[in-house]
Amino acid sequence: MGTGRTYAGRLALYLTWAALAKVDPVAPGVDEMATFARWLERTPSRKHRPGRQRRRAPAANTVMLGAARSAATVEGILAAVVEFVRFAASRGWCEPAVADRLSFRAELRFLPSGWDRGERTGRPVVNRRVVRRRRPEQPPAILSVEQVGVLVDACSNCRDRFIVEGLYATGLRVAELCGLRLADLHLVPSAIHLGCHVAGAHLHVVRREDNENGALAKSVWPRVVPITKTMVLCHDVYRFERDAVPEAAESDYLFVNLWRAPVGRAMSPDGVERLFMRLSARVGFQARPHMLRHSFASKVALATKDPALVKELLGHASVSSTDVYLHARWDDMRAAADGHARTNRGAP
């Protein structure tokens, strides 16, 4: 289901739609849930609206002809809403039959991979929602090494270059990057004198709810991400530019405003997204910050074939979340077919 912040955002979408459609939010029917699903598919979120001021655009009356949200996103929002209605039924806010008609009990013929049944020995039964969206398995959108190089070359200052290369080299989320403090970076061979027993250059991702820029790490569990020597050099060049600004030198945040007011204030996730919009206009192809995270994960998964390692580096809650990065690639399939042909050459 994700973090509490994600759950609250999904419910906020549902409550917005319920107010527009004049539907009782704690007692929806199957038809209302289907209408809500279609509304989600046609109404883009503020994050994915066109224009630089998309987050400040009017909220509810923008409609797209194509799919505005992926099937996986709609499925997650519907799951959150159904759980909310079940919670409302358990508290007596609506009749239990209201929650029961949104799902039905179904026996599983085949168990999903990684599903732990615990001590239950009977036939596997689940509550399956009536309103669902099929989730096609597609590889995530990534950027090639050449495209990342073009993005870096399009940056006009050391800070922007460090942001692009940092996202690509660490796989951090935008909120995690903007929430970094100077004390989170240990760019020395040994940081024992700082109370950290992790060897080598690395950074700590910590969830803080008091960040002045509103950057909140998605995972509640802290993690450590290794840093390469190249990134240490990029950091040193950026710090020379950053610390030359008195207001920035006084800030504890790593990424701060250097040229626009308020100077020295922590850079917000929205500021990073606007940076990528400007870079996309310069280079001629679409580039989003999260695509660099997918690119990092795909490279690691291809090199190691270890989903547990990818999970720890990305800070996922489950190993199953890394399956999307372990998909079969065309080059691998071609090599396998050619190898099979060479092995069986001459066989009857």
Write the layout of secondary structure elements.
Blueprint: H1 4-21, H2 30-42, H3 71-90, H4 96-100, E1 103-107, E2 125-129, H5 145-154, H6 158-170, H7 174-178, E3 185-186, E4 202-205, E5 223-226, H8 229-242, H9 246-249, H10 269-283, H11 289-304, H12 307-314, H13 330-343
Antiparallel strand pairs: 1-2, 3-4, 4-5
Helix pairs in contact: 1-3, 2-3, 5-6, 6-8, 6-11, 11-12
Per DSSP, the total helix count is 13
CATH architecture of the largest domain: Orthogonal Bundle
CATH superfamily heading of the largest domain: Intergrase catalytic core
- CATH first level of the largest domain: Mainly Alpha
Q: Outline the biggest β-sheet.
A: 3 strands, antiparallel
Strand order of the largest sheet: 3-4-5
- State the separation between the terminal residues, measured CA to CA: 53 Å
Q: How much helical structure, as a percent, in the residues?
A: 40-55%
Quick one: how many beta strands?
Answer: 5
Order of helices and strands: HHHHEEHHHEEEHHHHHH
Q: Low-confidence stretches at least 5 residues in length (pLDDT < 50)?
A: 52-60
CATH topology of the largest domain: hpI Integrase, Chain A
Judged by helices, strands and strand pairing, the structural class is: mainly alpha
Indicate the overall shape. Answer: globular
Integer tally of domains = 2
**What is the radius of gyration computed over CA atoms, rounded to a whole number of angstroms?**
24 Å
Q: Roughly what is the average pLDDT, rounded to an integer? A: 85
Quote the beta fraction. Answer: 5-15%
